Amino acid sequence: LSLNCGSSSVKYKLYNWENQEIIVKGIVERVTIGNSFCVQEINNKGKVTIEHDCPTHKEAIKLIKDCLVHSEYGAIKDLSDIAAIGHRVVHGGEKFSKSVVINREVLKTFKELASLAPLHNPPNIMGIEAAMELLPDIPHMAIMDTAWHQTMPDYVYNYAVPYQWYEKYGIRRYGFHGTSLLYVAKRAAVLLNKDPFECNLISCHIGNGVSVNAVKNGLSYDTSMGFTPLEGAIMGTRAGDHDAALGFYVMQKEGYSPQEMNTILNKKSGILGITGKYVDRRDVIEAASKGDERAKLAIEMEAYRLKKYIGAYTATLGKLDALVFTAGVG
After folding, report:
1. Looking at domain 198-326, does it have CATH number 3.30.420.40?
2. Is residue 66 annotated as a catalytic residue, yes or no?
3. Which residues form the signal peptide (predicted)?
4. From CA 256, how far away is CA 260, in angstroms rounded?
5. Which of 53, 137, 145, 280 is catalytic?
6. If DSSP codes are grouped into helix, strand and coil, which group holds residue 15?
7. How does pLDDT run along the chain (330 residues), one tens digit per residue?
8. Same CATH topology for 1-144 and 198-326?
């Protein structure tokens, strides 16, 4: 069973390893918001929607648990059929370069890293704790988005700031969306009919969050997101690359606290900041087609930033076998 706990949703899939097939997949939406519901799709049986209020992630995990074994629309007879549970964790820092079995020490480390991915790590942790409480007899694993990027060389992941910041606080480029980027790198090699370790790729994971990834000889070499998911391309609500002094300047002018500025740059910038009202690119495209000048500007700005990254990574790789697009917008 795989679980991906977001701030207001929990996505899940149950996979049969022996048959290499997805048995069931679903999503619990509007967790913590109200009017929660689960949409479950069972292999060869269609979709079913179950309305059930989920004020916390614990209720959402329990709803998933009940749906999986339901007599009418369930997929398995007993929860003991589940051999392991995999959890997506956005930020694993430098400590984790591969997937890990979750224990108290691992959870403690995730909590210490929560401030590095404020939109994702806290709900990831809430989901893990809820699942471990409700399903204590099944091993739980964490799959980190940062692990894929641990192959980046030091001259790529270090910042030109006082080096003791890296030594004391682990400040460096980590990169994100690793589970997606690992998969598309391997899949691209299959489609190219090449050894994955002989492939040079640029992968563009473009959703509400955006990562551009340079893959050199099958390994992550550079990526657009940095110490946190704020750096890089223009995103749905994140600013991406900008002059670091900009934040200090506006804090002085407007009297914002560091936490308020962090919220603005992560949750009120990007496409939303430019347009003033849109996050979903479909809404932006529709508004632009009707003459909305700021929607047009958002499209041009986002596309230009992506071109810059693709061009820069092409130069660093020397040769390029494929340009890969993935995620909802990609």
Report:
1. yes
2. no
3. none
4. 6
5. 145
6. strand
7. 999 988 778 999 999 999 989 999 999 998 888 899 999 999 777 899 999 999 988 899 999 999 999 988 898 999 999 999 999 888 888 888 888 999 999 999 888 888 777 777 788 888 899 899 988 999 999 998 899 999 999 999 999 999 999 999 889 999 999 999 999 999 999 999 999 999 999 999 999 899 999 999 999 999 999 998 899 999 999 999 999 999 999 999 999 999 999 999 999 999 999 999 999 999 999 999 999 999 999 999 999 999 999 999 999 999 999 999 999 898
8. yes
